[in-house]
Design a protein that fits this description.
Layout lengths: L3 H4 L8 H15 L11 H8 L3 H13 L3 E4 L3 E4 L6 H6 L7 H16 L2 H7 L2 H14 L10 H14 L3 H20 L10 H10 L2 H11 L1 H5 L3
């Protein structure tokens, strides 16, 4: 007979701070609090929840760390718009992330690159395409059989993300580039795909969204080929 107490670990109980944190989130949603709205004082929350002020303070501290709550002079606590990428930016360092996670993030970036077509075609302008073409032409002299260059990727793909007009996408791309470069160093020297940066510019100028999707996929074909 198995020793259940030994083989099955006890399920950890939630602390009071865990419960209060969840209750506060539910309260903010129920009362439709918006960023900038004043929140009840710690003591008022503690009395309403029937817990100590220290428990409420700990729960609020967690929400502050997530960027959901802040304190302003003469106003007190307010609900804030969280910086959803802030924590990610602080920890996304190839030197402190395990290889499996790096691989996952690398694959995420490749997926994003291919999936940008719809929003890109919605917001691209002739001026943007002209600037992108200038970048691509400046890189043309480096093209060759072994022509993948991280600095070229940063300049060209960075401009593509900028063309989406989406600030979150741009920040995300900036975070992913170091990971992208790190993974490339771990692989064999990569070849450029059958579609170059200049080819992608021509598709953006004259082709369809679907043609761009297929073009980006062909551009990154050697990266996808290295996935396991």
């Amino acid at each position: 007979m198995p020793n259940l107490k030994k083989d099955l670990a006890l399920i950890a109980h939630k602390t009071m701070a865990d419960i209060v944190e969840v209750r506060l989130r539910e309260f903010f949603k129920k009362k439709s609090f918006k960023p900038g709205d004043s929140l009840p004082k710690e003591l008022e929350l503690a009395e309403a929840l029937g817990v100590s002020r220290n428990v409420v303070r700990e729960a609020l501290s967690r929400l502050r760390m997530l960027g959901m709550v802040s304190t302003k002079k003469k106003i007190g606590m307010i609900l804030t718009r969280p910086d959803i990428l802030g924590s990610f930016e602080r920890v996304l360092d190839p030197l402190i992330i395990d290889e499996s996670t790096l691989q996952d993030i690398y694959e995420l970036r490749l997926t994003l690159e291919v999936g940008l077509a719809d929003i890109l075609y919605l917001r691209k302008t002739e001026k943007d395409i002209d600037e992108l073409e200038k970048i691509a032409k400046s890189q043309k002299s480096t093209y060759g059989r072994h022509a993948f260059r991280i600095k070229n990727e940063i300049a060209f793909h960075g401009k593509i993300y900028q063309m989406t007009g989406n600030d979150t996408l741009q920040r995300f791309q900036n975070m992913l580039l170091p990971v992208f470069g790190h993974i490339v160093k771990l692989e064999k020297e990569l070849l450029i795909g059958t579609v170059t940066h200049l080819d992608l510019v021509n598709i953006l100028r004259n082709g369809s969204k679907e043609e761009f999707r297929q073009g980006m996929l062909a551009h990154l074909e050697y990266h996808f080929a290295n996935l396991k």
